[in-house]
Specification:
The complex is a heterodimer of chains A (419) and B (292).
Chain A lengths: L1 H19 L11 E6 L5 H13 L6 E6 L3 H11 L6 E5 L3 H6 L3 E2 L2 H6 L10 H5 L2 E2 L2 E2 L1 E3 L1 E10 H6 L13 H5 L10 E3 L4 H11 L5 E2 L2 E2 L4 H15 L10 H6 L3 E7 L3 H5 L6 E4 L11 E4 L1 E6 L6 H17 L1 H4 L4 E2 L2 H4 L16 H6 E3 L5 H16 L5 H18 L3 H6 L1
Parallel strand pairs in A: 1-2, 1-3, 9-12, 14-17
Antiparallel strand pairs in A: 3-15, 4-15, 5-6, 7-15, 8-12, 8-13, 8-14, 8-16, 10-11
Chain B lengths: L7 H27 L2 E2 L7 E2 L3 H8 L4 H35 L7 H9 L6 H11 L6 H4 L13 H27 L3 H9 L4 H12 L1 H16 L3 H6 L11 H10 L6 H30 L1
Antiparallel strand pairs in B: 1-2
Chain lengths: 419, 292
């Protein structure tokens, strides 16, 4: 009888320990800063290098980098249970307003006090600003990653399109001038990251995605931007719908490729691809915009994070601020002014975007609270809109409604006044 | 004599019961509760009664209504397109393999079974490349000039091919096992009575594997209703949301990039669960009644 009871208890204990094992085991280790990032690609390895370099300086508290797939879902899980919350995390700029509204981020005040160089003047303004809500700083930026336009130098020369680059603003009209000049299997531009391209045009045309805090998707500017991009498609100059435009650029069939800063590393590995980088094409002759986002360091609410740990976080972030040229290897633009102004960084292609004030200003980060809903709607419909597969007016109405419904449901104030 | 307390059954059932409670019963009950609330995963859920359900089912102007019915329609299409081949093909293969003259049975069985062991995302990557116009077999060997993922009916075809490729093996193994359990004597006596192979299949094989058939039919259907990975990876729901299945909408509402809309997502999930429950019960009832 006793034996049986013993066996039963063992069984229960084993199961319980298995379940307990599901939690993060050393999240509350006082001598380690648990650092979660969503960097599941090659960039994760560059972050690993940075963390290793930092730990090699023998800091009081070492950093443990945990690449976390599906990180945002896991963050909401650990936040609701209050257990296993990481000490530090990297989040995207678009997420900051939402987390702040839900009071889930701890301000960086103590961190900034511990390391006085972690201040506005030392970072690119829009990257710093995206973490500032109502005067409180919630994040310290790591980088800006942006929509950019790569070009094939050989093809540009072949078709006499090098002059497009003169003022660093390739206009849609200039692209349209290539009509009839390209053979059937070559194209002026592809459709990679089209959602970002469209959101960039909104800025070029002087519009925005919000008006007085309310979402503005169904606007004349949005319609104009779609129609302008659609002209490229209608002229037969855009890679066909559904085809791998990224690959077509790499195989030398496309003059321009709208893509992200991070793709330069992959393009560099393609033999015989002679390429450069410039601003995304613009619907306006006076303005160009590269829709951008930022990876930012943030601390989620965690009562167990000690003051010592926060000091540890501060010294890690200070290390990153002065050493993040390593991060440029991942194709990103470090947010630290010290790094982007260094001679080392000038060797990287993306230094083009920090070469002067106008370029820095072109990196535009949307900070509207409901930007994620708008981006979801834009990404869902943009392909069909610019290909003329769906009516523009009707689709813009649907998109506007979709965003408003989501805002209303998420309990936002914006739609309450609408109803 | 005093009756001894027998703990042995509890020992065997216990661990499973605990896991079942923790990972199935409690989350399900909580999920149903959440479906009656507005919740953003942070803070506490705000009770709204049947409001989510009435929006989804009756408010025709609502995005959630449109998404639910478009998602449900596409999910039903997926079920209709994939469940019959996932029953008929494995059954045909299993019957063919049970023939005495077929050689290399184990090898063929393995070749058909292995795809089921590969994760959906990995297999979807393989098939995306196969159907890639520049790199793939369809373009280079068969000379297809179609961008499969963005044009119908090709978008559905890629999803269906991937699903069947990955799903045939599992059911086939079940049918193989049950066919081999059918007594040889039945076939021999049928032959003596002059029955041909088709007659033998319908009068002996099918009735004998009745239960495995019901089981696989119900399970395959329920599995197909939960489809998510294939359309997400192959077509991203396109073109024009014609392959956006319900799970994709649910996932985006609950775990999209914006603030979570978990209450509405849960209500959709509960409704999907009800649909699966009703259809499974119907299948079971109809097939069981026919077999008796």
């Amino acid at each position: 009888m006793k034996k049986k009871l013993g066996a039963l208890l063992t069984g229960v204990a084993v199961t319980a320990s298995l379940l307990a094992g599901c939690g993060s085991s050393n999240a509350n280790d006082p001598n380690t800063i648990t650092f979660w990032t969503p960097l599941t690609g090659d960039d994760g390895a560059y972050m690993d290098n940075l963390v290793k370099e930092y730990n090699a300086t023998n800091p009081a508290i070492k950093v443990k980098h945990v690449v976390t797939s599906d990180m945002y879902t896991k963050i909401s899980t650990v936040l609701s249970s209050g257990k296993g919350v990481p000490d530090l995390a990297i989040i995207h700029a678009d997420r900051v307003p939402g987390y702040v509204k839900q009071k889930q981020l701890e301000p960086m005040t103590t961190v900034m006090q511990a390391q006085p160089e972690l201040k506005e003047a030392n970072f690119l303004p829009q990257a710093w600003g995206a973490g500032n809500i109502d005067g409180t700083q919630y994040t310290i930026p790591l980088d800006i990653h942006s929509n950019v336009m790569y070009y094939n130098k050989d093809l540009l020369k072949k078709y006499g399109a090098e002059s497009f680059l003169d003022d660093h603003n390739v206009t849609i009209d200039e692209l349209l001038s290539l009509k009839g000049k390209l053979p059937a299997d070559e194209y002026a531009v592809n459709d990679a990251l089209m959602g970002w391209v469209l959101l960039g045009q909104i800025q070029n045309l002087g519009g925005d995605i919000q008006q007085d805090g309310k979402p503005a998707v169904n606007t004349p500017v949005m319609k104009q931007a779609i129609e302008d991009i659609k002209k490229i498609n209608d002229a037969g100059l855009m890679t066909p719908f559904g085809e791998d435009g990224y690959l077509m650029f790499q195989s030398g069939k496309v003059l321009f490729s709208t893509d992200g800063t991070w793709s330069s590393t992959a393009h560099a590995k393609v033999e015989g691809l002679n390429f450069g980088v410039t601003n995304v094409y613009s619907a306006s002759a006076d303005k160009f915009t590269n829709r951008a986002s930022s990876h930012m360091f943030a601390m989620f609410n965690n009562e167990k994070r000690t003051d010592e740990k926060e000091k540890g976080v501060a010294s890690f972030l200070e290390f990153i601020r002065s050493h993040s040229v390593e991060w440029a290897k991942a194709g990103q633009i470090p947010a630290s002014k010290e790094v982007v102004e260094s001679a080392d960084f000038k060797n990287y292609m993306q230094s083009f975007f920090t070469s002067d004030e106008k370029e820095i200003k072109s990196l535009y980060i949307y900070t509207y609270e409901y930007y994620p809903y708008i981006a979801e709607a834009v990404d869902k419909y943009v392909g069909d809109l610019i290909r003329g597969n769906v009516p523009i007016d009707e689709t813009l109405q649907t998109m506007q409604k979709e965003v408003e419904d989501k805002i209303a449901e998420s309990g936002g104030a914006a739609a309450k006044t609408d109803k | 004599m005093k009756k001894k307390l027998n703990l042995a059954p509890a020992f065997f059932v216990g661990p499973h019961l605990i896991l079942f409670l923790v990972f199935v019963v409690i989350p399900t009950i909580y999920g149903i509760y959440v479906s009656f609330t507005q919740w953003n995963l942070a803070g506490s859920p705000n009770w709204v009664g049947f409001s989510n359900y009435s929006t989804i089912l009756f408010d025709t102007s609502s995005t959630f209504h449109t998404q639910f019915f478009n998602g449900l329609k596409n999910t039903l299409l997926f079920v209709l397109f994939t469940v019959p081949p996932l029953i008929i093909l494995p059954l045909a293969i299993a019957v063919a393999l049970s023939h005495k003259k077929v050689k290399g049975k184990t090898f063929i069985q393995s070749v058909l079974y292995v795809p089921g062991l590969i994760s959906i995302s990995a297999s979807a990557l393989i098939f995306t490349l196969i159907f890639n116009k520049q790199l793939g077999i369809t373009g280079n060997v068969f000379g297809s000039t179609i961008a499969w993922a963005t044009h119908q009916p090709y978008a559905w075809i890629t999803i269906i091919i991937l699903t069947i490729w990955g799903g045939v093996g599992g059911n086939m193994i079940i049918y193989r096992a049950s066919i081999s359990g059918v007594s040889e004597e039945l076939y021999e006596s049928a032959e003596l009575d002059g029955a041909g192979s088709i007659r033998k299949f319908f009068s002996i094989t099918l009735p004998s594997i009745n239960f495995p058939l019901i089981f696989t039919f119900v399970m395959t259907t329920a599995g197909a209703f939960n489809v998510f990975g294939q359309p997400l990876m192959m077509t991203d729901g396109g073109p024009q949301q014609s392959t956006s299945v319900l799970m994709m909408y649910i996932r985006q509402l609950a775990f999209g990039s914006g603030e979570s809309i978990a209450g509405m997502a849960s209500a959709m999930a509960v409704l999907l669960g009800l649909v699966i429950l009703v259809i499974s019960a119907l299948q079971y009832y109809v097939m069981n009644r026919n077999s008796n």
